[in-house]
From TrEMBL:
Identification of the protein by name: RING-type E3 ubiquitin transferase
Domain BIRC2/3-like UBA, first and last residues per copy: 11-61
Highest classification ranks of the organism: Eukaryota, Metazoa, Chordata, Craniata, Vertebrata
Keyword Lipoprotein (UniProt): no
Pfam families noted in UniProt: UBA_BIRC2-3
Catalytic function, reaction form: S-ubiquitinyl-[E2 ubiquitin-conjugating enzyme]-L-cysteine + [acceptor protein]-L-lysine = [E2 ubiquitin-conjugating enzyme]-L-cysteine + N(6)-ubiquitinyl-[acceptor protein]-L-lysine
Superkingdom classification of source: Eukaryota
Chief location category: cytoplasm
EC number: 2.3.2.27
GO molecular function, one term: ubiquitin protein ligase activity
Entry keyword set: Cytoplasm, Repeat, Transferase, Ubl conjugation pathway
Length: 70
């Protein structure tokens, strides 16, 4: 698991993730999505638009359910 954590930490510093964070999206939500994607696919976001799409979808789900993502 530790390797996965280090990989997620490294991914959080990637230009793709940094660009999304600079847009003002919630850091914890972005980090959660980066971690989920890595755990599910073994790879990280390579496109700003893919990450933004997932962040917006997660925010919409949060609005509809009234609960934040874990």
């Amino acid at each position: 698991v530790l390797g996965g954590q280090n990989s997620v930490a490294a991914a959080m510093l990637s230009p793709v993730v940094q660009a999304v964070l600079q847009m003002g999206f919630q850091h914890s939500l972005v980090e959660s999505l980066v971690q989920s994607r890595y755990l599910l696919t073994g790879s990280h976001y390579t496109s700003v638009s893919d990450l933004v799409t997932d962040v917006l979808q997660a925010e919409e789900e949060e609005r509809q359910t009234g609960e934040p993502r874990p």
